[in-house]
C-alpha cells in the first residue's frame, strides 16, 4: 500500500504542488461508485495530516461513505480556481488523486473517516511558455512522468 507520506518521500516538490492545489479552498470533489456501478460526485473536505496520511470524512450514514464501504475506489479533485479571462497563462492548474479508501475507527458520533491509499496522482497546469499544458502523473510503481499537450 502507498500512502501520502510515500509520495512526499519520493517526490517532495511534486507532492507540495499537489497539496497546494487542494489547499486553495476548503471543499473539493470526490467520485465514488454507486451500487449499480454508476458514478456519484460529492463535495468533501480533505485533510493532509501531520502523520503523513491523506484523509476524508463524512457525516454518519452519508451515501458517499456507504459507497466507499462497499467499493473503496475513489477519485479526488482539487478545488478549481479560474485564471483571469485576459490571461489564461496564470492558471495554477488542478490536481487529482485516485486511490482506495480505508475506513478508520468510527467516531463517537458515528461519523466516518477514511485514509486514502494512493494509486495515481496527477497535476495539470499551463506550461512555460504558455502554449501547452504540462501534465505530471505519479504512480507508486512507475514514479513521476511528465508530458505535454498542445
TrEMBL record:
This is Pyridoxamine 5'-phosphate oxidase N-terminal domain-containing protein. Residues 17-102 form the Pyridoxamine 5'-phosphate oxidase N-terminal domain. It holds the Pfam family PNPOx_N. Residues 93-113 have a biased composition (Basic and acidic residues). PANTHER family: HEME OXYGENASE HI_0854-RELATED. The keyword Ubl conjugation does not apply. Residues 73-113 are annotated as: Disordered. Coiled coil: none annotated. SUPFAM superfamilies: FMN-binding split barrel (SSF50475). Keywords: Oxidoreductase.
Amino acid at each position: 500500500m502507498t500512502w501520502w507520506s510515500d509520495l512526499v518521500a519520493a517526490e517532495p516538490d511534486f507532492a507540495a504542488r499537489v497539496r497546494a492545489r487542494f489547499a486553495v479552498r476548503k471543499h473539493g470533489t470526490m467520485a465514488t461508485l454507486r451500487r449499480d456501478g454508476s458514478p456519484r460526485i460529492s463535495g468533501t473536505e480533505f485533510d493532509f495530516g501531520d502523520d503523513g496520511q491523506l484523509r476524508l470524512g463524512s457525516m454518519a450514514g452519508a451515501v458517499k461513505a456507504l459507497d466507499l464501504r462497499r467499493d473503496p475506489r475513489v477519485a479526488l479533485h482539487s478545488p478549481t480556481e479560474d485564471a483571469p479571462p485576459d490571461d489564461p497563462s496564470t492558471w495554477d492548474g488542478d490536481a487529482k488523486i485516485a486511490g482506495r479508501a480505508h475506513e478508520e475507527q468510527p467516531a463517537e458520533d458515528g461519523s466516518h473517516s477514511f485514509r486514502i491509499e494512493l494509486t495515481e496522482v496527477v497535476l495539470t497546469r499551463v506550461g512555460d511558455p504558455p502554449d501547452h499544458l504540462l501534465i505530471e502523473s505519479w504512480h507508486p510503481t512507475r514514479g513521476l512522468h511528465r508530458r505535454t499537450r498542445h
